[in-house]
Write a structure and sequence with these properties.
The complex is a heterodimer. Chain A has a single domain (41-194, 246-391), classed as SGNH hydrolase (Rossmann fold, 3-Layer(aba) Sandwich), CATH 3.40.50.1110. In chain A, 51% of the residues lie in helices and 7% in strands. Chain A contains 20 helices and five strands. Chain A has helices at residues 3-9, 20-44, 48-51, 58-63, 66-81, 94-97, 107-115, 133-145, 159-162, 176-182, 184-189, 203-218, 220-223, 225-236, 255-259, 280-291, 311-314, 317-335, 362-379, 382-391; strands at 87-91, 122-125, 152-157, 297-302, 340-344. In chain A, strands 2-1-3-4-5 form a five-stranded parallel β-sheet, sandwiched between helices. By secondary structure, chain B is mainly alpha-helical. Chain B has three domains: 6-163, no CATH class; 168-248 and 385-457, no CATH class; 251-382. Chain B starts with 5 loop residues before the first helix and ends in a 13-residue tail after the last helix. Classes of the chains: A alpha/beta, B mainly alpha. At the A-B interface, helix 1, helix 2, helix 12 and helix 14 of A face helix 1, helix 9, helix 17, helix 18 and helix 19 of B.
Chain lengths: 395, 458
Amino acid sequence: MSTGTRARSILPDQAPYPSRRSLVVSVWPMFVVLLVASQLALGWHTPLWLVHRHRVPYEIIRDDLRNLDLAIGAVSRYVRRNDIDDYLVILGDSVGYSGPGGPEQAVSRYLADLSRPEGGPVVFNFSIPGAQIGDIYVLLLKLHEHGLRPAHLVINTLYSGFMPRTPDPPPVFWLRDELTRLDPDASAVTPPASPPEQKDGTAADRLEERLVAAARRWLPVLAYRDFIREAALDAAGIAESEGRAPEAWYEKPWLDHYLRQPQYQRVYDLRPVVLDQSNPNVYFLERIVAAKAPHTQLLFFATPTNQSLLADIQADHRMAANRGRIDGYMRDLASGDPRVDYVDWTTAVPDDLFVDHLHLLPDGYRLLAELIWQRLAKAGTGACTEVAEQREVGY
Amino acid sequence: MSFHTLLFGAFLAIVVVAYYPVGKRRLPLLGLANAVFYGFAGLPHLTLFVGVSAVTYWCSHRRHRGWLWLGIAVNLANLGFFKYAGFFASGLEQRLAGIALPIGISFYTFQMISYLVDVMRGQLHPSRSWLEFWVYVSFFAQLIAGPIMRGRELLGQIRRVGHVSWDRARHEAGLRLVLIGLGKKLVLADTLAPIVERLFSQGPALSSAEAWLAAYLFGFQIYYDFSAYSDIALGIGRLLGIRLARNFDTPYLSASPREFWRRWHITLSSWIRDYIYIPLGGSRQSLTRSCLALMAAMGLSGLWHGAAWTFVYWGLFHGLLVCLHRLWSQLMRRIGRDAAKSRLWSRPVGVALTFHLVTWGWVLFRAGDLASAIGMMRAMALWTSPGMPPRAAAYAAILGLLFSLHVAEQWALANHDRLLVGWRALPAPVRGACWAVAVLVLLAFTRPEASSFIYFRF
């Protein structure tokens, strides 16, 4: 009688079990070995694509800020393992992150496309939408904490970032607790953020939180669960981090009215800008310059702005005066260190490449990547210079 | 304490490990475990639950039927105050806003009412002790979201828990059910949840195709979420030697609305049938009166789900579907059409039609308000707003996969024995690897802090 016939003829509880000895020898060892091996592999050799595909998915950081450390840690291990010295890190807000498009439309992807064939720097992007200048400073400290001291650092600045906060957005939006941990002095002089929403959890919730926190240390699969889930959704083609198909700003007639909402008023702020230590942007920009590694080539750029959409305020003489003062301040800041560069790209991107007043269509981010690439080359460091000399990249 | 948390995993492990060595003391152990489990939701709610169960138990031991009615009234008052006071008296809505709904109240109320009614009808002997009764009404495996167990199904098993012996096959079956349930919840339902949330938050702004997509996805989300809970409940029952009733039988493969309610939330459907529909006359009366009784029962069933008109309309919608199906069947019989002759094509057509009607109805259940629900349902029915959703091909593939899984579940249930034999015939290392992969996938998808079971809110 064939096995199949016999199998169909017997009831499930009468099905042959392996002996107790074979169960112990075979089932549990395999179970335990696979479980332990997978955890060791994931902890030591986290695949880069899992945590960073041209950027770290915003949704993952938004849901759990601990994921940011996991991503930076995995990138750090990747850099060490592959003995990479020449790498570039973009730190920024939603423009650096390259919203609203997907990771394949990010400025870091286009920059990597320019760099890779020429043997230029490896590109990483830790920008977080909504990040303020204080967050960017903390991100830099976190890079250092994980042993990442990039050859190139690219940071975008915003006009609205220099204008008074009322009190929102706070100068450190995402990483306030980390600022307190990494730089208590800076934390002490930074205006406090609005108190976080208190979680009204039950005893079970609090206990669960502690259990999960403890288990995360021992089970990397639990620690990396958000990344794994995102990768699975990405494979299915429905990941939220894929962004949405961006539409040009002129296809959205409601946009002008939308930008007049109170939360965007700082874009239109025409009061004289104050550029002393009381301005959090000034304070953190100077701390960034002081904190960067000595060999790091730092590029600040003023974020491109849609001149047509903001035509009425761009034409205002008070705006011109403020921009002139900010530009002067940034040039002064850069002049103090030969490895710090600043460029004003407010008008460098054609208006038809914008999605709104700041964010860009994929072609806009591609252009921004080429601008960055050209600027780094001009700054005269490493492969960028050699490549630029060969290719005469430029606009 | 939700089933898909590490905390519950630890709690269950402690209970199962302690359960078998204590022998005759298993009843107090279960009573204590139930109290601890429910106590995590808050001591006031535990106190209330203990109080209502004590009153119910006490009433069930009085000889006069008036006491039994009093017990039912106390249970209804408890449910009515916490769940429906704001709904029926709009002035109270603000005042009650700060009072949380005790979790599982709808389920334990129905369980205690069925117990009292069965005692009143003489179909059930009152529980022998309050401890036994407490374990019956508060069994942690099914307390929060069912299955709703009748006294005659569960009390006898509870009396015998001291004699349950360790059985490897039963325990393996229990673990399998728990893992399958966790897989349904963590991998399927929780993955669909944010997509569904994003789509339904746009409400009537969705195109017709997007509205259908939202409804399809929610249909699968709620099925995989709720049936996951039931699977885990059944699995826990097996681990403790207690057999709980099945609550789902691949309902989206039903060929009629009536069949759907025999396969969806089976224990609630049978409760509604036995304690509302049949006392209202059931089907042994004229078609008109029978349909009216059905509409009343289904409307109450909808209201049981939540204190909102959308739920009532959802219940009435299903009542209407069942009535229309009954009319159709009667018409077919009158004109002499034999259903059996056209079975080849009628079953697939019936399944497709029922699935789409049920999906259409889910909009009432899920939409934030009636206006949004009507807007979406109108767009779905009349195709008033053309336009394909972004990533339509990916979503179509996912819907295909979800439905295939549903069909596969049906096949697995039908071929359970053969599958089990095949599984046991696999080499032990392969089985060990399968267990490891299953545990890793579940750990990777676990996000208890971001989700709860949908039926917890009812």
